[in-house]
Design goal:
Elements: E1 2-7, E2 10-15, E3 26-30, E4 39-41, E5 46-54, E6 60-67, E7 72-75, E8 89-91, E9 100-107, E10 123-125, E11 132-133, E12 142-144, E13 148-156, E14 159-167, E15 175-178, E16 187-196, E17 199-207, E18 212-219, E19 227-230, E20 239-248, E21 251-259, E22 263-270, E23 278-281, E24 290-299, E25 302-310, E26 316-323, E27 331-334, E28 343-352, E29 355-363, E30 369-376, E31 384-387, E32 396-404, E33 410-417, E34 426-433, E35 441-444, E36 454-463, E37 466-474, E38 480-487, E39 495-498, E40 507-513
Parallel strand pairs: 4-12
Antiparallel strand pairs: 1-2, 3-5, 5-9, 6-8, 6-10, 7-9, 10-11, 13-14, 13-40, 14-15, 16-17, 17-18, 18-19, 20-21, 21-22, 22-23, 24-25, 25-26, 26-27, 28-29, 29-30, 30-31, 32-33, 33-34, 34-35, 36-37, 37-38, 38-39
Length: about 525
């Protein structure tokens, strides 16, 4: 007779037989002085080590691993592990020499510790597969798509081209390219990008000789090659642009602004992974006279966008839109000004389920900008706002991009500046919260690469403990150069690099990254 039960995040299956007061046939724990992996990059493998100890007073031969999670296999030959568990293994009685062996596993994909299928968890068994035990420390591994794509503006003389940077090495090396301008377009740049598998969709601003027009670039090969399309704004609007985009299960939603006499919220939606688009301008809420959306994030059927409303007095207010039907319909929300704040602007947003954090800059009325935070726990329908106190020696700060995980840990990036007016240097800035936005740690990357005097980070993408941010670093003569910052410890420490210009390019910025 077998009894199966769930205890917390792990599963056990065991016989009702009692072994001299020992409850389970095996004790399976992570091997001492090792850590279980939490992420694996696509196309690579990571190792996990457990110690399996005989929990009975008898010698047990012919033991074996009956079940393993998907994307996990047992390694049975490794000369570096002298006590390696084989495909079958013998364990001496509990407490004697040889009562344990090291189980080595190779992980090549995502592993869900809460998978409800008991066959998708580690089980070691006595011969016959009836008496088995699992572990209190199950694997939980995120799959990291090693192909990263950053987008921006790459300029040659007075012309701006859509710029693409791709990395297949977790951000350590990059390949760059500029896209040709479509017919009748004289200048273009990309500000937002979203990637899922090998498909990437980027959005931006494509300028004709007369108007700015919303544009989309689509890649189906991890950012290597791209097709572009320029969208005609909705009826009654002569210009527009798209700033942010998010795709989920082949449905893509993008946000920006469409303009006739003044800009108002713009949305674009694709039901075929970015190939074709429908567009909509959302009527302004009273008493606002203009509005723009900058970022969007979707989780399941919930999509939330962030931006700004402006009133007749040119005061800006933080604003949001939300949808519960993957962008088919939208509701708008105006956020009131915080006490002591006279101007607010939201730049980026990241959601996990119904939890969202948007970031921006909030003007305190004394000529200083503060990093602004807006948090929603109900999918964008209501918000709480706050500002961060700038670190000592900094007078202004703006957060521009953010990435949150399922545990409500978020890493935001932006730029902080020292006093001195428009000529004062600005530096890349990082803000990290591990408790859903209640508390933040901040750091400023003042040690810029040699030859650069200022910098800013605009976008960030985190998976597991790896975060890669995109931005720009400036020389003393104001040449913008594409920049990348990488953290492998959840945003605590960062390495920086500057990318060389592609041929014919003299100025470049990287905005969005996915």
């Amino acid at each position: 007779m077998i009894r199966e039960f769930r205890q917390g995040a792990y599963l056990l299956a065991l016989s009702l037989v009692t072994f001299n007061s020992y409850a389970l046939p095996f004790n399976i724990k992570p091997k001492a002085d090792t850590s279980l992996p939490t992420q694996v990059f696509s196309g690579e493998a990571v190792s996990a080590f457990y110690t399996i100890t005989n929990n009975t007073s008898s010698v047990r031969s012919g033991n074996y691993i009956k079940y393993l999670p998907p994307h996990v296999k047992q390694i049975t030959v490794d000369n570096n592990v002298p006590d390696l568990c084989g495909s079958t293994f013998k364990l001496h009685s509990h407490g004697s020499n040889g009562d344990s062996c090291t189980l080595e596993l190779s992980v090549t994909g995502a592993v869900n510790s809460n998978d409800p299928d008991p066959h998708h968890h580690l089980f070691a068994c006595f011969p016959g597969g009836i008496t088995c035990a699992g572990t209190n420390s199950p694997l939980n591994v995120f799959l990291v798509n090693s192909a990263l794509t950053a987008v921006g503006a790459y300029s040659s003389n007075e012309t701006s081209f859509p710029g693409i940077a791709t990395s297949n090495s977790q951000g350590s090396t990059w390949k760059q390219q500029t896209l040709p301008l479509p017919s009748n377009i004289v200048s273009a740049y990309l500000t937002g990008v979203t990637c899922s598998g090998a498909t990437c969709v980027a959005v931006g601003d494509y300028s004709s000789n007369t108007y700015d027009l919303p544009g989309v670039a689509l890649s189906t090969d991890n950012g290597m090659t791209w097709s572009q399309q320029v969208l005609t704004p909705p009826p009654c609007f002569n210009s527009g642009y798209l700033s942010g985009v998010n795709c989920n299960n082949n449905i893509c939603n993008a946000v920006g602004a469409y303009t006739n006499s003044s800009p108002q919220f713009g949305t674009a939606r694709s039901l075929d992974n970015g190939n074709s688009w429908s567009q909509r301008a959302l009527p302004l809420l009273s008493p606002y006279v203009s509005g723009e959306l900058v970022g969007i994030s979707c989780s399941g059927n919930i999509c939330v966008g962030a931006g700004t409303y402006t009133d007749n007095s040119f005061v800006r207010y933080a604003a949001a839109i939300y949808s519960t039907d993957t962008g088919n319909s939208w509701t708008q929300v105006a956020l009131p000004l915080l006490d002591g704040i006279r101007d607010e602007h939201l730049n980026g947003i990241s959601c996990s389920g119904t939890f969202c954090i948007a970031v921006g800059e909030y003007d305190n009325g004394s000529g200083n900008q503060l990093p602004g935070i807006a948090v929603s726990t109900n999918g964008g329908s209501s918000w709480t706002q706050s500002t961060l106190t700038l670190p000592d020696s900094y007078s202004d700060g703006s957060l521009i991009g953010i990435s949150c995980n399922a545990n409500n840990k978020c890493v935001a990036v932006g730029t902080y500046s020292v006093p001195g007016g428009s000529n004062a240097p600005t530096y890349p800035a990082i803000a990290v919260t591990t408790d859903g936005g209640s508390n933040w740690s901040q750091q400023v990357l003042t040690s810029l690469p040699s030859g650069f005097t200022s910098g800013a980070l605009f976008g960030v993408e985190c998976t597991g403990n790896t975060c890669v941010a995109s931005g720009t670093y400036d020389t003393a003569n104001f040449v913008d150069t594409p920049a990348i910052a990488v953290s492998t410890d959840g945003g605590n420490t960062w390495s920086q690099q500057v990318l060389a210009f592609p041929s014919g390019i003299f100025n470049a910025d990287l905005y969005g990254i996915s």
